[in-house]
Structure prediction request, 355 residues.
Amino acid sequence: MRTIWPGEDGRSMQVIDQTRLPHAVEVARLGSVEDAAVAIETMVVRGAPLIGATAAYGLALGLLADPSDAGLEAARSRLARTRPTAVNLRWALDEVAATVAALPEDARADAALVRAGEICDEDVAICSSIGDHGLPLIEDIWQRKKGPVNVLTHCNAGWLATVDWGTATAPIYKAHVAGIPVHVWVDETRPRNQGASLTAWELGHAGVPYSLIVDNAGGHLMQHGLVDLCIVGSDRTTGTGDVANKIGTYLKALAAHDNGVPFYVALPSPTIDWTKRDGVAEIPIEERSPDEVTRITGRTRGGETATVHLAPDGATAANYGFDVTPSRLVTGLVTERGVCDASEEGLRSLFPDLT
Ligand code: MRU
Prediction:
């Protein structure tokens, strides 16, 4: 199953509603630009590549309603405002807009739908290739260690965050299929718990052994030799190799550095922002509602979904969605074209055509 696909009516897209996981698998129909924008904002869909794919289809739906230049710009600007950090969103909007810009109005929507479909198919191929290039990292450790490889990951950079395969999880899935014993430490990833609700669900269904851990456990595990390798995803990587990813990634990279644990970031090329050089200074960091920090949502024993308050009434909270890990803390970048140093030279060596 993919995370997103076109509706049979030719005027909508279907997505897995990730706000309902892990307790229910439900499909949501998105029939307009506004539906797509709200789905991204409320995290019905999330994860950088999937945000991009949803925005691409969203723009196509906007052109079905209004194929004029004004309609294109209105849809594009509504979608671009949804979430600021993942650059795949802007990349996908640019791709679709460039595809239709020179076309007559009556040809735009169809062309946009085709391009959105291609973006999805490309994402599947890219993520599968990331898996192929990341697999040797796990295999090498397994051959040296002659025992299960313990991989730590943060947030959900799995197939739910992409169209299929995932980025950080693709090498894990490929290793599992190849018969290499892998065990994954899954950071729960407060405040929205993408690790607990999404990565754990994914790995469980794939039969990959995992242990859910609180976000602060990683350092302790690394000090005790219980983590062989960290692999995380990225929402935006600068042309110099700095990596924005879910809040808390930086602390894991610091702990990995202090303990000599390899720290890899898996990313597709549309996640690279070639216009940025200093991730900490230049990458916009999303700030979300404080309610996500002061409350938590889950399933009650009675099977109902409930939101409960964790903090005192009226507590103030800050909710930064992402942080930036400087390239010096990243062992390597795993891309669809291979593994490279987290540096300008490393990225240029793999993507001379994109820089
Ligand atoms: O806020 P989210 O759930 O959209 O954040 C997702 C992440 O941080 C992922 O690690 C990132 O998008 C990479 S997805 C392949």
Q: What stands out?
A: The chain has a mean pLDDT of 98. The longest helix spans residues 105-145. Residues 127 and 155 are 17 Å apart (CA to CA). The domain at 133-350 is CATH 3.40.50.10470 (Rossmann fold).
